[in-house]
């Protein structure tokens, strides 16, 4: 689903809880009777109606203090003003209001894709020592000798997803027992299809508990034909704001399995932390 909203017109909607565990929207308490079920709660629907009517869009921050069941809802597909929320808003899950600047240095690509399209897409960056890459069955041996990945700018994991929780596949289609090491870079990309609803949640949680401050993962199938150039574009352009860059890519391409299938969890690299929310 392609977006039609400019970056300059995005409004921030921050959903969190106060000290008494009451739900809040931009600091104002709202009435929550039950978990939303396919339809936006009235207090959020009213806010989105005003936003959409004004011809702008929203960035919805689901605070890390919200219960897991709120984080795992398919917000993007919820009905909103005659269409889906994802057409009007970018959803950030497990949001943490903390500044995050990506370190300068090399990115790391661990590639278990069946063909070499991903590693080929960044070959000039590998030659320029901007990307380190490991491919195929050499990945596990290299990881065994390199348990600390925190010196890298970011980590890309590329593999097939399996129809089993927290399971990735090797290039030959066998289960890959990858577990995030204890020391990860601040930004991790899990470029694998979510073949099972919530199937990548365990890996996302593990990454966030082992040094990653932000994780980008899939919310459904991914297209390798679109993901390889998308990865190369991010690495080559080195944008300052991850959320803005991804939103821009989502505007430009609505093909199945492209940028629209990616979701952000955690802090937002390169983005200022809003201290005052619009009323």
According to CATH, the fold-level topology of the largest domain is: Rossmann fold
Order of helices and strands: EEEHEHEEEEHHEHEEEEEHEHHE
Number of domains: 2
Number of helices: 8
Which overall shape is indicated by the principal axes computed on the Cα atoms?
globular
Which residues form runs of ≥5 with pLDDT under 50? Answer: 272-279
The total of beta strands comes to 16
Spatial extent as radius of gyration: 19 Å
Can you give a write-up of this model?
By secondary structure, this protein is α/β, with parallel strands linked by helices. 24% of the residues lie in helices and 24% in strands. It has eight helices and 16 strands. The strands form three sheets. The chain has an eleven-stranded mixed beta sheet with strand order 3-2-1-4-7-16-15-14-10-8-9, sandwiched between helices. Strands 11-12-13 form a three-stranded antiparallel beta sheet, with no helix packed on it. A two-stranded antiparallel sheet has the order 5-6. β5 and β6 form a beta hairpin. The longest helix has 14 residues, at 224-237. It is globular and about 55 Å long. The two termini are 28 Å apart.
């Amino acid at each position: 689903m392609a977006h039609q909203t400019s970056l300059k017109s995005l409004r921030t909607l921050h959903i969190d809880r106060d000290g008494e565990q009451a739900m809040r929207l931009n600091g104002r308490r709202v009435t929550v009777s039950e978990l939303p079920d396919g339809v936006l709660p009235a207090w959020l629907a009213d806010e989105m109606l005003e936003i959409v009517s004004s011809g702008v869009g929203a960035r919805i921050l689901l605070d890390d203090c919200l219960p897991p069941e709120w984080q795992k809802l398919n917000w993007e597909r919820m009905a909103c003003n005659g269409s889906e929320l994802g057409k009007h808003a970018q959803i950030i899950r497990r949001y943490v209001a903390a500044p995050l600047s990506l370190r300068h240095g090399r990115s790391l690509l661990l590639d278990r894709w069946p063909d070499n399209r991903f590693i080929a897409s960044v070959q000039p960056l590998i030659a320029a020592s901007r990307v380190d890459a490991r491919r195929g069955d050499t990945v596990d041996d290299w990881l065994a000798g390199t348990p600390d990945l925190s010196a890298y700018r970011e980590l890309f994991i590329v593999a097939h997803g399996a129809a089993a929780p927290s399971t990735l596949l090797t290039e030959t289609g066998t289960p890959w027992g990858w577990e995030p090491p204890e020391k990860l870079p601040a930004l991790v990309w899990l470029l694998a299809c979510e073949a099972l609803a919530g199937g990548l949640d365990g890996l996302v949680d593990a990454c966030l508990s082992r040094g990653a401050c932000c994780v980008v993962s899939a919310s459904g199938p991914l297209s390798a034909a679109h993901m390889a150039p998308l990865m190369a574009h991010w690495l080559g352009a080195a944008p300052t704001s991850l959320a803005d860059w991804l939103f821009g890519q989502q505007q430009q391409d609505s093909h199945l399995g492209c940028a629209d299938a990616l979701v952000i969890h955690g802090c937002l690299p390169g983005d200022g932390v809003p201290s005052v929310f619009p009323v």
